[in-house]
Amino acid sequence: MIKKNDNSNIKYRAKTNIQGIRLNKCLLSLSRRGADEAILSGRVRVNGQEIREPGFRVNLNDRVELDG
Fold first, then answer.
1. Is the distance from CB of 55 to CB of 32 less than 8 angstroms?
2. How confident is the model at residue 60 (pLDDT cuts 50, 70, 90)?
3. What pLDDT does 10 receive?
4. Burial class (CB within 10 angstroms; exposed 0-12, middle 13-18, buried 19+) of 51
5. 3-state helix/strand/coil string of the chain
6. Which residue of 32, 45, 59, 61 is most buried, as measured by CB atoms within 10 A?
7. CA 30 to chain centroid
C-alpha cells in the first residue's frame, strides 16, 4: 500500500507505465545474459516484428514471442 507522502513509488509506476519495461526482463525463462543473446540472435519477436535491441521497451499489451 502506498502512503500519501511516499511519492517515490508513484513516480516509478508512472515511469514504468509510460516507458514500459526492458525486453530482456520479459523473458523470464532465460537469464539476463541469455535473454540478451536470444534478442541479438533474432529469436525474439514483439508484435510480430523481429527485435534485435536488448534495450527495447515493451508495454503490457505487447505480444512477446521467443522462438515462435
1. no
2. confident
3. 46
4. middle
5. CCCCCCCHHHHHHHHHHHHCEEHHHHCCCCCHHHHHHHHHCCCEEECCEECCCCCCEECCCCCEEECC
6. 45
7. 13
Cβ contact 38:30 at 8 Å? yes
Q: 7-54, pLDDT tens digit by residue?
A: 444 444 444 456 788 998 888 889 999 999 999 999 999 999 999 988
Would you call 1 exposed, middle or buried from its count of C-beta atoms within 10 A (0-12, 13-18, 19+)? exposed
> Do you know the residue count of the chain?
68
Of 13 and 55, the structure prediction assigns the larger pLDDT to 55
> Is the pTM for the entire model greater than 0.70?
no
